[in-house]
Amino acid sequence: MKVMKFGGTSVGSPQRIKDVAALVNSKEGNIVVLSAMSGTTNQLLEIADYLQMGNPVGAAETLSRLEDKYSGVISELFADAEEEYRCGATKAISLSIEAIRSEIEKPMSGQTEKNIVSRGELMSTALMLNYMLSQGINAKMLPALDYMVIDASGEPIASTIAERLKKLKKETGEADLYITQGFICRNSEGEVDNLKRGGSDYTASLVGAALGADEIQIWTDIDGMHNNDPRYVDNTAPVRKLHFEEAAELAYFGAKILHPTCILPAKLANIPVRLLNTMEPSAEGTLICNARPDHRIKAVAAKDNITAIKIKSGRMLLAYGFLSRVFEIFERYRTSIDMVVTSEVGVSVTIDNEQRLPEILAELKTLGTITVDKDMVIICVVGDLEWSNRGFEAAVVNALKDLPVRMISYGGSNYNISLLVRKADKVKALSLLSEYLFTK
Ligand code: ASP
Ligand code: MG
Question: How many CA atoms are closer than 13 Å to the CA of 300, on its beta-carbon side?
Fold first, then answer.
């Protein structure tokens, strides 16, 4: 059994929905996880935003645009279908539109945005289910709100998810395939909630782990994970195979194709994740698994909007406890650190969230002299970088020999070298690394 997750663009139009239905058509009892149609989540958040701003008219106007869009989708998707299925889809969409309307009319609460945004996945899955039924596919729905749960800190509760999902699947009965919503869940109060933006990948991984799937497939519209960012560098190539740890580094450091949270449940359950392309279904894509090390550099990625902070202190010399005092300050302001580099008289760290920077800097000044560099970029080189392999770090540094490099971090894991450069040098750095590492 496979879990197959399709992102917003893969179900972004009636034609794309038809393509997905044709693609997944099987009798293997696979599970299809869907995102909202592309653009919908943003539109729903816009509605909530209008309400937040005290503008229900703006909210209602956005809703009516959404309603028009979905009625157009239904007309096209069910143009040749039997009335029964067009009716099924129309009813489900109206239910969601009315639910949003009632949120607009009600006084706003902490639940408003979550209730509204959950409708995107509820609508896309209802369209897909009815369309599949109209095509004679014996598909059944597994409503995510019946099994996907998070605890009070927002973490999915794997054991409860597994227990409820197995029970639900049994009660739902045999089917050729099952459809479920990505992203949405219930919180510890039983209220509608979600797994944060891009969370459908996480759903797929959690579902795969819960049911012990043979494979988790993430379908998008590019041919797997590339060895560099195709938006900035020419001649990038898909990476065929990645270790889970390599994929985690890449996903976190900028490869947009896979949500970083998605890796862990699959890795723990040892279920391979395959990244595939809806536009070219027979292409090989990228396989992520607990593969053996292969002594190669696989890919380069960049993470933007980084701020570097240097804390220099004579007191650090031969002292213990200095680093912990530095880190405590970041912890107090709930700001996570990406890179750390130390010397005997100073430490540099990077953060990607400047929200609490003024308070952090004020406290750091009690420990030493502070220098801040904004508009920096982390360039992350990923591969089998176990330290007994020779020459990789030299090749990376050599590739960037003509650029100013602010920090280098190596040896933190077996899979990554991170370098901090100026935003202005990002594209140059990515191109040089591709040239040196992948074409020579
Ligand atoms: N629809 C949600 C979002 O746009 C979840 C997802 O697509 O993964 O963030
Ligand atoms: Mg996504």
Answer: 28
Distance CA 270, CA 268 (A): 5
155/295 Cα distance (integer angstroms):
35
Residue 45 CB partners (closer than 8 Å, separation 6+): 113, 116, 117
Distance CA 399, CA 425 (A): 13
Whole-prediction pTM value?
Answer: 0.88
Q: pLDDT grade, residue 318 (50/70/90)?
A: low
Range in 56-60, 157-161, 278-282 the model is least confident about: 278-282
The response to whether residue 41 sits with its C-beta less than 6 Å from ligand 1 reads yes
**Ligand showing the shortest atom-to-Cα distance for residue 125:** 1
Instruction: Note the residue count of the chain.
Output: 440
Q: Are strands 139-141 and 184-186 parallel, antiparallel or unpaired?
A: unpaired
Q: What single letter denotes the amino acid at residue 337?
A: I
Distance 75 CA to ligand 2 centre (A): 26
Element (H, E) at 277: strand 273-277
| 192 vs 172: CA distance, rounded Å | 22
Residue with tokens 């650190």: 337
What pLDDT, on the 0 to 100 scale, is given for residue 253? Answer: 78
CA atoms lying within 13 Å on the CB side of residue 99: 20
Ligand in nearest proximity to the CA of 42: 1
Contact criterion met (CB below 8 Å) for 13 and 19: no
CB count in 10 Å sphere of residue 212: 12
User: If you count DSSP H runs as helices and E runs as strands, how many of each does the chain have, helices first?
Assistant: 14, 16
Buried (b) or exposed (e) across 247-281, using 16+ Cβ within 10 A?
A: bbbbbbbbbebbbbbbbebbbebebbbbbbbbeee
Which residues make Cβ contacts (< 8 Å) with residue 103, sequence separation at least 6? Answer: 51, 112, 115, 116
The whole-angstrom separation of Cα 204 and Cα 215 is 10
For residue 212, name the pLDDT band (cuts at 50, 70, 90): very high
Pocket test for ligand 1, best of 197, 201, 219, 262 (most atoms within 8 A of CB): 197
Nearest ligand for residue 199 CA:
1
| Ligand 1 centroid distance, CA of 39 (Å) | 9
Identity of the residue numbered 410 = Y
Express each pLDDT in 24-48 by its tens digit. 977 889 999 999 999 999 999 999 9
* 199 touches ligand 1 (CB under 6 Å): yes
Q: What is the dihedral of CA 297, 299, 305, 311, to 10 degrees?
A: -10
